[in-house]
Specification:
By secondary structure, the chain is of the alpha/beta class. 50% of the residues lie in helices and 6% in strands.
C-alpha cells in the first residue's frame, strides 16, 4: 500500500504548503518556476518539509526531462549514463534540458560530487540536490560555486500541517473525503503540534488512524495520543504550555532549582518539544543570568545542541542540566535593562550624530570631512584611554545604560569599570 504521505504529494505549485519565506506568489523563486527560468539549486532542511515534493513540481512545470536518484543507492556509473542521455537530448533535435534531482546528496563523496561539474558548466543538466545537512559543510565548494541558489527548508508550522491534514480528510480523489471521517478540531491540531514540523509524520499518522478507526468513531485527542504513543498533556488545554514555561522561567529567576526542574519535567511529560524548551532556556541565560555568570549562555547552548542531536527521551537529561545550571547561577538582568533603556532613548528623544572621531576613516576623502582624525587607539595606551564615545548630548548628560550588579562574576566587571572612572 502506498503511504498516505506519498499519495498526498501536491502536483501543482499552487497546492504546495510551507516555506513561505521564499516560496510565495510573486517571489523570485515562484516566478522563476512560472517563467520557466529556474536554474540549478540545493534544498536543505529537515525531513518532511517538502524538498522532494517541490523538486518534482518544478520538473513538471519546466516541461523538461526529469530524473530522480538517491545518492545512497546510486553511484557515479549510473550518473554518467544519465548525463550521456541528457547530452543527446540537449544537443539533439529535442533541445530539451534535463533536470536531475539527487536526494541525500551529502552522502556522495568528493569524487562523486565532482562528476557533476562539467555537465553543470556546459548547461547539459539542471541540478537540484536535497540534503538534511548544511551544504556549506556537506557539499564541495566547486559544486556550490556552480549552483547559485541554496534554499533552506524550515520545519512546517502547526498551521501548515493543519492545512495539509484537513485537505487530506476533505479530498475525495486521493484523500479520505469519501469516507466522511468525523474529527475534533482540537485533536487534529494536537496531531499537527506533535508531528514537530514533519508532514510525513503527520500524514502517515493520520493514515494509520483512519485505516484502523472503528466505524462511526470520531478522531479525538485520545485516539491521536494512542497513535502517536505520546501523552498529549497540555496540548489538550489551550494555554497550559505557556503557563508551565512561565513558571519554569520564574522559578529559575528565583533561584529555585527544585521548582524549576518540577516544571521542566511537567513540560516534558506533557509532550513539549526540545526546541520549545531550548529557545526559552537560551533567552533566560541572557535575560536572567547574563553578566552575573556570562558562561551560562555557552553552557546552555551546548546543552540544547546536545539535546537536539540526542533526541528524546535522553535529551531531557541534557536540558535538565541546563535548567539546574540556570537556577543555581547568580542572577543579573543588566543586559536586557541596558538594551531596553537604550532603545527607550532612541524611540523617545533626539540623539546626536556619531562623534566625528568615531566615524569610519577607511576611504578616500574621510580626512577632508574630519572623520576619525582625533580617535585614540586604546591599545596604544595600554588598553584604555579616556575619550568620548556617546553622541554629544548623551555624553554631556552623563547617560548610563549599563548598571552592573554585584552578583557573581558581574562584581568583577563592576569593579573594573569603576576603576576606569576613577
Amino acid at each position: 500500500m502506498i503511504p498516505l504521505s506519498t499519495r498526498m504529494r501536491p502536483n501543482r505549485i499552487e497546492e504546495f504548503v510551507g516555506q513561505d519565506h521564499f516560496m510565495y506568489p510573486g517571489s523570485l523563486f515562484y516566478n522563476s518556476i512560472k517563467n520557466k527560468t529556474f536554474d540549478s539549486a540545493i534544498f536543505f532542511g529537515p525531513s518532511g518539509t517538502g524538498k522532494t515534493t517541490l523538486a518534482r513540481i518544478i520538473a513538471k512545470e519546466m516541461d523538461g526531462n526529469f530524473f530522480e536518484i538517491n545518492a545512497s543507492t546510486t553511484g557515479t556509473k549510473e550518473l554518467k549514463e544519465l548525463i550521456d542521455r541528457a547530452k543527446l537530448s540537449f544537443y539533439g533535435l529535442e533541445k530539451k534540458t534535463t533536470y536531475v534531482y539527487i536526494d541525500e546528496f551529502h552522502r556522495w563523496n568528493k569524487l562523486q560530487q565532482d562528476s557533476l561539474l562539467k555537465a553543470l558548466e556546459e548547461g547539459v543538466i539542471k541540478f537540484i540536490g536535497s540534503t538534511t545537512e548544511n551544504p556549506y559543510f556537506a557539499v564541495n565548494n566547486a559544486v556550490i560555486s556552480r549552483v547559485r541558489n541554496i534554499y533552506e527548508f524550515r520545519r512546517l508550522t502547526p498551521d501548515n500541517l493543519l492545512t495539509i491534514l484537513k485537505r487530506t480528510l476533505e479530498d475525495c480523489s486521493i484523500g479520505f473525503g469519501n469516507l466522511n471521517i468525523k474529527y475534533d478540531e482540537d485533536a487534529l491540531r494536537i496531531l499537527a503540534e506533535l508531528a514537530n514540523g514533519d508532514a510525513r509524520v503527520a500524514l502517515d499518522t493520520l493514515g494509520f488512524i483512519v485505516d484502523n478507526l472503528s466505524e462511526g468513531t470520531v478522531i479525538d485527542q485520545k485516539i491521536v495520543s494512542e497513535a502517536m504513543q505520546r501523552k498529549v498533556g497540555f496540548y489538550d488545554k489551550g494555554d497550559d504550555r505557556y503557563n508551565l514555561l512561565s513558571a519554569l522561567q520564574k522559578s529559575i529567576r528565583g533561584s529555585d532549582p527544585d521548582a524549576a526542574i518540577h516544571y521542566f519535567a511537567r513540560l516534558i511529560d506533557g509532550g513539549a518539544d526540545i526546541q520549545m524548551i531550548g529557545r526559552r532556556l537560551l533567552v533566560m541565560a541572557s535575560e536572567d543570568i547574563g553578566m552575573a555568570y556570562p558562561s551560562a549562555i555557552s553552557i546552555v547552548t551546548s546543552c540544547v545542541q546536545a539535546a537536539l542531536m540526542v533526541g528524546l527521551p535522553e535529551a531531557a537529561i541534557n536540558l535538565s542540566q541546563a535548567v539546574i545550571v540556570l537556577a543555581s547561577s547568580p542572577k543579573s538582568n543588566s543586559a536586557i535593562s541596558a538594551y531596553e533603556a537604550a532603545m527607550g532613548d532612541l524611540h523617545s528623544r533626539k540623539t546626536d550624530d556619531v562623534p566625528d572621531h568615531l566615524k569610519d576613516s577607511h576611504y578616500s576623502g574621510a580626512k577632508n570631512l574630519g572623520h576619525g582624525l582625533d580617535y585614540k587607539y586604546p591599545h596604544a595606551y595600554g588598553g584604555y584611554v579616556k575619550q568620548q564615545y556617546l553622541p554629544d548630548n548623551l555624553y554631556k548628560e552623563g547617560v548610563k545604560y549599563y548598571n552592573p550588579t554585584t552578583n557573581g562574576s558581574e562584581a568583577s566587571f563592576k569593579k573594573y569599570l569603576e576603576s576606569l572612572e576613577k
